[in-house]
């Protein structure tokens, strides 16, 4: 179930149990790190996998 913002994702994670959630680091409103912190604060037990398609110039190797 995709959500457009991290805030909507946190709301979904607290409303329904999920075993795993894939989280983009570069989300609008909150980034993936902030989403993880918000989920942790709400005692969400979902395993989060963080990833991103956002690339920095220093990522080139």
Structure description:
The protein has helices at 6-15, 32-41, and strands spanning 20-24, 47-51. With 61 residues, it is α+β, with helices and mostly antiparallel strands. It has one domain. α1 packs parallel to α2 (32-41). 16% of the residues are buried.
Quick structural summary:
Helix content is 33%, strand content 16%. Helix 1 packs parallel to helix 2 (32-41). The protein is built from 2 helices and 2 strands, in the order αβαβ.
Layout of SSEs?
Blueprint: H1 6-15, E1 20-24, H2 32-41, E2 47-51
Parallel strand pairs: 1-2
Helix pairs in contact: 1-2
So how many helices? Answer: 2
List unreliable stretches of 5+ residues.
none
Number of strands: 2
The whole-number mean of residue pLDDT values reads 83
Helix content: 25-40%
Strand ordering within the main sheet: 1-2
How far apart the termini lie comes to 34 Å
How large a portion of the residues is in β-strands, by DSSP E? 15-25%
Net shape: elongated
- Helix-strand pattern, N to C? HEHE
- Please state the structural category: alpha+beta
Please state the CA-atom Rg, rounded to the nearest Å: 12 Å
Instruction: Let me know the largest β-sheet.
Output: 2 strands, parallel
Tally of separate domains: 1
Features:
2 helices, 2 strands, elongated, 16% strand, alpha+beta, 61 residues
